[in-house]
Amino acid sequence: MFENLSERLGGVFDRLTKQGALSEDDVRTAMREVRVALLEADVSLPVARQFIKAVEKKATGAAVTKSVTPGQQVIKIVHDELIAVLTGDEDPGRLKIDNPPAPVLMVGLQGGGKTTTTAKIAKRLKEREGKKVLMASLDVNRPAAMEQLAILGTQIGVDTLPIVKGEDPVAIARRAKTQASLGGYDVYLLDTAGRLSIDEELMAQVEAVRDVVTPRETLLVVDGLTGQDAVHTAENFDARIGISGVVLTRMDGDGRGGAALSMRAITGKPIRFVGLGEKMDALETFEPSRIAGRILGMGDIVALVEKAQEVLEAEQAERMMKRFQKGQFNMNDLKAQLEQMLKMGGMQGMMAMMPGMAKMQKQMEDAGFDDTVIKRQIALINSMTKKERANPDLLQASRKKRIAAGAGQDVSDLNKLLKMQRQMADAMKKLGKMGKKGLLRGGLG
Ligand code: GDP
After folding, report:
1. What was the pLDDT predicted at 227?
2. Is 193 assigned a ligand-binding role in the annotation?
3. Is 115 annotated as a binding residue?
4. Cβ(146) to ligand 1 under 6 A?
5. How much is the pLDDT for 195?
6. What is the C-alpha separation between 217 and 243, in angstroms, rounded?
7. Edge-to-edge strand order for the sheet containing 133-137?
8. Residue 156: which residues within 8 A CB-CB, separation 6 or more?
9. Residue whose CA is closest, atom 25 of ligand 1?
10. Do 194 and 114 meet the contact criterion of CB atoms below 8 Å apart?
11. Which membrane topology describes this protein (predicted)?
C-alpha cells in the first residue's frame, strides 16, 4: 500500500542525501515536493498543509545539524510527524467491550467490506480475547447479505442471530440484545445495512438502531482505496451517528493511502484496524509506526538513524558517506564499520536494519559471525601498515603472512577479511551507481 506516496517521498529524500548541509531553502524545496506527494496520495489539502508546516519547522531547526546525513534526518522528522498525526491516546486493537453483553455497531457504505470486517473482528475477539460473540445482520433489503454473514459465522465458529423473515432492523437489534443477554454472550456485533451513498433513510435507520442498543463501540468500515471519499463518509457518519473508530479495508491493494492520514487528521477518530485481504485472518491492528514506515517505504532506515545518532559523530559519518558514494571502501573504512558494529549491538543488529544487507547478513551468520570475530578482524587490520590499509590490493603472500602472524592468526583468516572488504567495496560501488534510488532502498544511504 501507499506505493505512490512512498516512491515520491523516496525521490525527494534521495536528492537530499546527496547534499552536505540542509539549508532553509533545501527544506522548503523538499517540502514542496512532499506536499505534492501527499496531495497525489489523496491527502486532503488542509491536512497536507498542516503536516508540511510541522515538518518544515522541525527540519529547519537545530536537530538537523546532528544528523547522519541531512536527508536521513528529514526522513526521520517526516516519519515522526506521520506517527504523531496517526497516533491517538487509545490502544486501537482494544475495543471497549467490558460489561457483557457489549453492543458493537458496524456501519458504512455498501461494498466497503462491512460484513467481512464484522466477521473478522468477531473471529479476532473469539480467538485472541476468548470472547463469546454473537453476530446479527440488519440488512433486511439484501437477504444475500444476511446469508453471507451466516455463512461466515459458520466458517469461523461464531454464532449468528437466526434470520426471521419480514423483521425490521430495529426489531432485529432488539432481538439480538435479548439473545446476547440470555445466551451469555460477551459481545454482539450488529452489521447494519449499507447504501451506495449516504442517504437520509439509511442514517435514520442506523440512528434508530443505535438508540435501541446504545453501542459501546460504533465502527465505521470504509474502503481505504476511496481516499477522500472515505474521509467524507466518516465525517457524515460521525456527525449523524457518532463513531468511535474506523476500519480501513483493502489496504492490501495499491491504494493511494492518503486516507489514513486525512482520516485521522480530519475526523480525529482513531483508525482501529486495517483490512488486508478477503480472508478471515486478514485484519491487523492499526499501527502508526508500521504505516508511517510503509508510507516512507524505506525499511527500518529510521531505526538505523536513531541508533546511529547515539553513537556516531555526524562529521565522520558524512565523510564516510561521501567515500561510499564514490565506491571507495578500504580497510580503514572496514575497521570503522566493524568498530561501529560492536557499538551498535554487533553485526546482526546492524545488518538486520539495512534492507540491502540481508544477503551478507545471512553469509555472516552462516560463517558463525559474532563479536569475537569482529574483534579478531579489527586486530588483523591493526596489524597492517597505513599503506596496506588504504590500498588492500598491495597484500601479496609475504605481506599476508606478516600481518596474520602479527595478529596471531592464520592467513586464511586474513583472506576471509579481504574477501569481506572486497564484497563490501563492491556493494558500495553498486549503491553509488544506483545513486538516487539505490542509496536509500539499499541501506546505508
Ligand atoms: P459490505 O457490503 O460492506 O458488507 O462489503 P462486504 O463485506 O460484502 O465486502 C465486499 C467485498 O470486498 C467482498 O468481496 C470482500 O471479500 C472484499 N473485502 C472486504 N475487505 C477486504 C480487504 O480488506 N481487502 C480486500 N482485498 N478485499 C476485501
Report:
1. 78
2. yes
3. yes
4. no
5. 79
6. 7
7. 159-160, 133-137, 187-191, 102-107, 217-223, 245-249, 271-275, 283-285
8. 119, 122, 123, 126, 280
9. 277
10. yes
11. Peripheral membrane protein
**Given this model, what pLDDT does residue 278 score?**
94
Distances from the Cα of 185 to the Cαs of 122, 149, 195, 212, 407, in angstroms? 12, 18, 29, 18, 71
Domain annotation for the chain: domains and CATH numbers: 3-89 (1.20.120.140), 102-291 (3.40.50.300), 301-441 (1.10.260.30)
For residue 355 the three cell numbers come to: 534492507
372 is in an annotated binding site: no
Ligand 1 centre to CA of 112 (Å) is 6
* Residue 199 in this model has a pLDDT that exceeds 90: no
**Predicted confidence (pLDDT) per residue in 152-161, tens digit:** 999 999 999 9
pLDDT digits (tens, 9 = 90+) for 103-122: 999 999 999 999 999 999 99
Ligand 1 atom 12, closest CA:
113
Integer Cα distance of 218 and 201 in angstroms: 18
What is the C-alpha to C-alpha distance for residues 391 and 40, in angstroms, rounded to an integer? 48
Q: What are the CA-CA distances from residue 199 to residues 144, 168, 230 (Å)?
A: 21, 18, 15
Residue whose C-alpha is closest to residue 441's, from 17, 100, 129, 102: 17
From the centroid of its chain, how far is CA 184?
38
How far is Cα 246 from Cα 263, in angstroms, rounded to an integer? 9
Q: Which three cell numbers stand for residue 169?
A: 432492523
State the closest ligand 1 atom to the C-alpha of 120, by its place in the atom list counted from 1: 20
Using the mean position of ligand 1's atoms as its centre, give its distance from the Cα of residue 108 in Å. Answer: 12
Give the amino acid at 240: R
Is 194 annotated as belonging to a binding site? Answer: yes
Distance, CA of 378 to CA of 356 (rounded, Å)? 23
Atom of ligand 1 nearest to the CA of 275: 23
How far apart are the CA of 111 and the centre of ligand 1, in A?
Answer: 6
Sign, Cα dihedral of 58, 59, 60, 61 = positive
